[in-house]
Amino acid sequence: MTRTPVANTFDDTTTTTTSADKDSLALLGLGAMGSALARTWLRAGHPLTVWNRTPARSAPFAAEGANVADSAADAVAANRLIVVCLLDDASLDVTLEGVDLRGKDLVNLTTGTPAQARARAEWTEARGARYLDGGIMAVPPMVGVPEAGGYVFYSGAREVFEEYGDTLGAPLGTKYVGADAGFAALHDVALLSAMYGMFAGATHAFALIRGEDIDPVAFAPLLGDWLVAMAPAVHQTAEQLSSGDYEKDVVSRLAMQVAGVPTFERTAEQQGVSTELLAPYFELMRRRLAMGSGDEDLTGVVDLLRGRG
Ligand code: FVH
User: Fold this and answer.
1) Pocket mutation for ligand 1, best pick of 39, 50, 71, 87 (most atoms within 8 Å of C-beta)
2) Residue 25 sits in the same domain as residue 43
3) Count: domains in the chain
4) Of the four, 123, 135, 199, 211, which is 20 to 30 A from 91 by CA?
5) Chain center to CA of 218
6) What is the pTM of this model?
7) Contact present, 216 and 210 (Cβ < 8 Å)
8) Is 229 domain-assigned?
9) Does residue 106 line the site of ligand 1, with CB under 6 A?
10) 5, part of any domain
């Protein structure tokens, strides 16, 4: 299994080679994300054992230098570091049922809730293994492309994170966010939730211009640039949450913003567009204003969502 080390981890033209100083590992799950991870580890020279529920998905990896295991148990038996990237938490139950995990290090890159991650950590430790949870902040084309900026949140066993730092960092950047196994999932879901809020706003914007003589392709850069320009507002929200002073450095008063809400509602109506994506947010803004918070901006809505106020 010892071959020449690769010169460039991310060079597509590099022939797959493995090196004795690279961690060997098993990867369970060769979906879109698992396949991208597998190829990056192979190109980086890691001896890799792969397993997938549907064997046809594993077969191409033999030609790329991977050991293809007949079962998840075989893949786990042959390695100490076990990375799992499956559809959901239930897939892990099925895949790892009856598999001997004693002395193994399990890194779970499957998206799940913080509670699932914490339960999986207990489940793993009860089986004599160490547990590190991961939340992937990337889509498959970003894997193995450092300049794309993708990374993985990790939480749980810090020793595992540190011991396999180079290996975990080969496909994507890494950010360790704490010993609580649920924190990677919490960071992951929080960021993805913000992303869906952004997509919801963009969806509403496209609906407003749809049907008019406005080219969506010409409109898109205006929309994208505006979202980028507004994104730094999260830092002020964070400062205000941290200090508890929601009126500090306010630029756009809540009273002013709520006064503008009917403009958004009427424009949507005139364009024949439902306000159902924005209406809950507008309702929360009005409720916060009714609490006498007109000199704040939007930070107080965080407390409303948490049932305070
Ligand atoms: N792809 C993406 O854009 C996102 C980016 C952020 C992170 N997610 C999460 O990564 C996990 C895997 O996602 P994926 O993109 O690889 O998903 P699929 O291509 O659908 O592959 C799913 C794999 O899971 C296997 N699988 C499903 N159910 C079971 C089961 N009951 N037992 C064993 N394996 C199972 C499936 O096997 P097969 O269908 O080929 O037999 C695939 O290997 C996921 O948590 C994302 O949220 C991806």
Assistant:
1) 87
2) yes
3) 2
4) 199
5) 30
6) 0.91
7) yes
8) yes
9) no
10) no
Contact 146, 173 (CB under 8 A): yes
Structure tokens at 299: 């930070």
Q: What is the pLDDT of residues 58-107, one digit of tens each?
A: 999 999 999 999 999 999 999 999 999 999 999 999 999 999 999 999 99
Task: Kindly list the distances between the CA atom of residue 21 and the CA atoms of 115, 160, 166, 203, 299, in Å, as whole numbers in the listed order.
Answer: 36, 17, 11, 49, 50
Query: Is the distance from the beta carbon of residue 189 to the nearest atom of ligand 1 less than 6 Å?
Result: no
| Residue 2 scores a pLDDT above 90 | no
Domain that holds residue 204: 187-305
205 and 108 within one domain:
no
Is the distance from the beta carbon of residue 256 to the nearest atom of ligand 1 less than 6 Å? no
pLDDT for position 308: 77
